[in-house]
Amino acid sequence: MDAQYDPSHELYWSKKWKEDHVFHSEIDENKPRFSMVIPPPNVTGSLHIGHALDLSLQDAVVRYKKMNGFNVCWVPGTDHAGIATQNVVERSLLKEGIKRQDIGREAFLDKVWEWKDKYGNKILDQITRLGCGVDWERLRFTMDPVCARAVRHAFKELFDQGLIYKGHYMINWCPRCGTAISDLEVTYEEEDAHLWYIRYPFEDQKGFIVVATTRPETMLGDTAIAVNPNDEHYQSVIGKFVLVPLIGRRIPVVADESVDPDFGTGAVKVTPAHDPTDFAVGQRHDLEVIQVIGLDGRMTDAAGKYAGLDRFDAREAVVNDLEKQDYLEKIEPYRHAVGHCQRCNTVVEPMISDQWFVKLTAMAPEAKRVVEDGEIQIVPDRWVKVYQDWMDNIRDWCISRQIWWGHRIPVYTCQECGYVFASEEEHVDTCPKCGGPVKQEEDVLDTWFSSSLWPFEVFGWPEQTADLKYYFPTTLLITGYDILFFWVARMVFMSTTLNKQVPFKQVFLHGLVLDEHGQKMSKSKGNTVDPMDMIDEYSADALRYALISGMSLGGQDVNFSESRIEHGKNLTNKIWNSARYVLNVVADKDLSKEPEQLSSVDRYILSRLEETKNVVVQCFDSYDFGAALREIESFYWADYCDWYIEMSKVEPTYGTYWTLRHVLEESLKMLHPFLPFITQEVWSRIGFDSYLVNETWPAPRKDFVDSVAVERLSVVKDAIRGIRNLRAELNVKPSQRIRVLLQGDLDSWSEFIPYIKFLARVEEVSQTASAVENAYSVVVGTDVFYVPLQGIVDIEKEKSRLLKQKSDLENRISVYDKRLQNNDFLNKAPKEVVEKQKEERQALEESLSQLVKRLSELGG
RNA sequence: GGGCGGUUAGCUCAGUGGUAGAGCGCUUGCCUUACAAGCAAGAGGCCAGAGGUUCGAAACCUCUACCGCCCA
Q1: Angle of the A531-538 helix axis to the A540-549 helix axis, nearest 10
Q2: What is the pLDDT of residue A860?
Q3: If we measure between CA atoms, which residue out of A771, A848, A850 comes closest to residue A806?
Q4: What nucleotide is nearest A579 when CA is compared to C1'?
């Protein structure tokens, strides 16, 4: 084994796991079941750091559950990402000067499939590289025939139940993507903008009414002015008519409750075609709807002389003309939230059009109930409230997209009789009623529609397959809180409606990965981290370490830093070298039998191992993965490597060798969910030809719990640290061995003297009945170690050392005294706490009296 | 406007009512034959502020300030 750990074998193991179907699951009624579906990543995408965290966590759980005897099934797959994928292919076609319309729908879709077949495996390879133990034989793509079938079935089912409908409503339109998008796909950003105050003259030309707007270009589509019915200023104008500046359209002043009297002048313009609130006002007052902005973001013919202008150019032009013609009262700076397309950041245009909707308003109560009743447990539970609030304010979901790549809406209209129906069949040519020709809807479904069926469609739904019955509902879902609404909630809607069952029993929502200063990563900030670069530079284990060790129980965001991943790399090197040492030492030993004799030091590390096992299991069971990892790491590095391995070098016995090896093996098992590669590699170096993930999780060994040994060792460590500290302070060369005299019960120390000699570089420890002249001293409890040094002992230095220790002790004791002299404390605190405090004070007091004695010997 | 997080060492963060921990960074000394990707020893904190509950608060409650996120 090399002195430095080389992670290049990671490639070997990830390939082996896949080739040997290590993570393949089959139905097995004799084992407890654990099933989970991967949040399917975008097939056009590559792994980003957020995926890496999400996948590392899932993999850790999968390995942990598998080692605990579960029949684990983790289903992998990718998402067809309608708009994103279409964009990518459109862009590449455009390089050849081809528009998708030029080649038509079918040819275009062929191109997309070609593209997918060529590049769509990238992210799957990356998942493999990260070490993920997914069931590759169950790999799914959301456009697979089985998923397409599921989508059609789900659609028809919901359509027939009246839970999907087509409607003429205001939706969010992205002019760049050329499609409707859902409310969730709009992100609002605060922007510095303006409020333009525009004069609308009354039709009799006697005065005008001033309205404030952030969007002057939409005035071309104004069909009313609205004021609040209770606004005294405007009582007299309600019912009157004004003329829209620049175009002269005659529009009424209406009274509507929705108008905020405190906004602007208290009077607002109403453009039903281009604003959701105005749309509602328009419906209430039966106003005309004039669309002045087209689907391409340019002004329509209805905009008169502005027709053809981009909406933002039109804004400038309109403002310009208003100013010229003296319709502009004033301009104020104004900060407000502007909706952008989540995908391309284009400013979203509210637009009225015919779209398909899922009636979430009808489905929300059940989705709410299953969480309320605990049928689904959301962890951390603070998300429950967020989820419930969202359900309380739910709006129907616009699912139609004006693109080609995706699941085409399975609704047909008979060209003869006009019958409209949804079908589950892949192709429908004739009307089931009259046999006439039918025409299918052109639009495709929101990608999230198929994603919402993911946890059951991957098991063959709607067929009631054996897999579906066995693996569904899934046990756990792990994903980031950022897709709670996008995905998690929608799966609940779909499953509770279509299956009358929850899609998963538990959801763990983790935080997002931020940069090292807690900033969101973004390309424009230039602070993104490519996980594959990190893997290349540091190893997948190190990356997994950096991500998971940064997690805390509350599901906080994880700050990613290179220093953390570097530490992960150091940890793997530490594991490597400690294993290298141990394996070398035990190489020729037959350690098959458990030893009959164990030293205190052996019992100490075995007992600490038991404590660690307990904590780690508790952490896993409470989804505290970061703490689990930190706990094992600290046990392995601080207890096992820094103390036990070092101590094992002193007069090793069979028990020592056995313990060295035992703790190594058990530690490897506990580390395996987090660092699968190095642990597997070392496991094989031990000589095992098994996969570590198929080994059994370390079982508790109550007989190894030995608090006395742990307590003894803590004192021994204090002695060693004390002597080391003394050496360091006095600049004693590491190579120089020193003599030590113990004032105290040598017998009680005898077992540990060899360790003290080795670790504190002590030549000899002998006993002394009384204080030693000309020596430094280390007080450990009631005992004193004297260290006479050749040459002159600096009495003043020794005194000041001891005085500092004395005042530290006195300070600590005074805190205890304050507490123990307080009658309220003595009466009200639990007895065992009082006892413990007394004991602790007593121990400090004993050390103090030794110090005082020592100081008086020095004449201080 | 409504809601949710956060504020602890220079930086990034853990912390379960009983006078605070880690990693990185810093100082000092060590290539001590597992590991310099390491070892040892150290320095460094009125736990954001103010009230309250409690025998006792970094932790529980209330308010304030600031930072961040989500929703409208």
Answers
A1: 120
A2: 58
A3: A848
A4: B34
